[in-house]
Specification:
471 residues; alpha+beta; eight-stranded antiparallel β-sheet; 18 strands; globular
């Protein structure tokens, strides 16, 4: 290379570098203006990291596949840390058997989970209007969220993992976000990065027409909606929802009770600032007003119990413990259940007498009448005739039943709309800094409601919001 060529090359490189940086910064600013999902392709800054995440997660899940789950989880399972060494990084997985057991209890196979997290399709980056400094990624099928967390948040989750699991066992249809894995990735010459894998509340999202993040307060709870006709995804907030209602009819009492139970649990953890995620989409015409017989509810219960009794993840307490009860009339559950080969259920309900009777007719056998649960939450089985274990479990549990859907634990159907509902962000402890923030906000926002309040007040206020905005 001649001296002139070297000079031209040397002079041109900084200019090109500055131009590239300006373009990148301009593109980044444009992305922040257009909130939503962006594919993490080879040109994306997170491409290398997400490729390592995929490789590490695939190996971690393969380890779970190759090592069958124990019959019962032990204290060692909750403390387990497994490190796997890869070419350019190390991946550590925490409490692997515990999360594998939770995945199984949700009816999720390890192969299915592995395929979603390590498929060839690129991860998606979700850029939100959240104040959190965390990075959010979605699997290509949008089924699972990956979120970076700081060390304190991971320690908090792991230290409370046992009671979190107990809560999900006691209330299998809890609205709490389902944590499916906790990992740490170590890349040479870089800081360790912790991340968690969660089930997405908004899945599948093809027809969702509005999303909300609800905290039950006013200050900083408005987001400018996306321009009409654009594909930009914006998560709206409390003030955007004013004047609207979650219309559930017979499902409403269940939702109110479950929100009370879940927020009371979070109160025992001394946390606040969690959010109720909410989205809705219109039901198709053939999905509307499908009021199923009480017998079909029993059939759904049997299917629900069957899914929960899979070995390796759930204890018997998941089935026999108490759960929020319905009040009023028997709930309506959309969808249909195929007729069982061995059993046809024909219902006869008499809720005016506070008891519901179900006649179970077996092919080639006589009818057996069962009394199934007081609709007002009265302990079941006191006058009930002996029947199948599944029916007795239903009498004890009286749990809400769910539609045939890809993400049933976060889906509730009303007469006209399908709602996606879940509680997320449960890591903010009400410590000294939050107490100071509370008093500062009281001075700055007199007469207004804001997010930083004590856990009991936060719990009560969010429950009241749900009460006021449902019908």
């Amino acid at each position: 290379m001649t001296h002139t060529e070297m000079e031209m090359s040397g002079a041109g490189q900084p200019r090109r570098s500055r131009t590239v940086k300006r373009r990148r910064w301009g593109g980044l600013r444009q992305q922040w203006k257009l909130l939503g999902l962006f594919e993490i392709d080879q040109q994306h800054d997170f491409y290398g990291l997400t490729c390592m995440m995929k490789e590490g997660l695939s190996a971690a899940i393969q380890n779970s596949i190759d090592n069958p789950l124990p019959e019962e989880l032990s204290d060692d399972d909750f403390r387990m840390e497994v490190t796997q060494i890869h070419k350019d990084f190390r991946m550590e997985s925490f409490a692997g058997p515990v999360f594998a057991s939770l995945r199984r209890s949700l009816g999720m196979t390890e192969k299915e989970y592995q395929h979603s997290l390590s498929s060839e399709g690129h991860y998606l980056q979700f850029i939100s209007n959240s104040k959190s400094k965390a990075d959010f990624f979605l699997t290509n099928d949008k089924r699972f969220f990956l979120k970076t967390q700081n060390k304190r948040e991971v320690r908090f989750l792991l230290s409370n993992l046992k009671i979190y699991m107990e809560h999900l066992e006691n209330y299998p249809h809890s609205l709490l976000v389902k944590f499916l894995g906790v990992h740490r990735i170590k890349i040479p010459q870089q800081r360790k990065k912790y991340f968690i894998v969660m089930q997405s509340v908004f899945y599948p999202d093809e027809r969702i027409d509005a999303r909300y993040d609800i905290k039950g307060c006013q200050v900083s709870r408005w987001t400018e909606p996306a321009p009409e006709g654009t594909q930009v995804i914006v998560v709206l907030k409390d003030l955007n929802f004013e004047g609207q209602f979650i219309t559930l009819d017979q499902q409403r009492p269940w939702l109110l009770r479950q929100v009370e139970i879940d927020t009371a649990f979070l109160q025992t953890l001394n946390v606040l600032d969690y959010s109720l995620l909410l989205a809705h989409q219109p039901l198709h015409q053939d999905e509307r007003h499908q009021s199923l017989s009480f017998a079909t509810l029993i059939m759904r219960t049997k299917k629900s119990i069957s899914a929960l009794t899979a070995k390796g993840g759930t204890s018997r307490s998941m089935i026999t413990s108490s759960s929020p009860t319905h009040t009023g009339t028997a709930p309506s559950v959309p969808g249909t259940v195929p007729e069982e080969e061995s059993t046809i259920l024909v219902s006869q309900t008499d809720c005016g007498m506070q008891q519901c009777r179900v006649v179970e007719t077996h092919k080639g056998s006589c009818e057996v009448e069962e009394e199934v649960g007081s609709v007002h939450g009265e302990p079941c089985g006191r006058g009930a005739r002996t029947g199948s274990a599944e029916l007795r479990d239903f009498q004890t549990q009286n749990r809400r039943l769910l539609p045939n859907f890809k993400n049933p634990l976060h889906v509730i159907d009303g007469p006209e709309q399908r709602y996606f509902i879940g509680i997320i962000d449960i890591f903010t402890v009400y410590g000294f800094k939050k107490r100071l923030e509370h008093w500062w906000k009281r001075l700055r926002h007199p007469g207004q409601t804001f997010s930083t309040v004590s856990p009991p007040a936060y719990c009560t206020r969010l429950c009241q919001w749900v009460q006021d905005h449902t019908k």
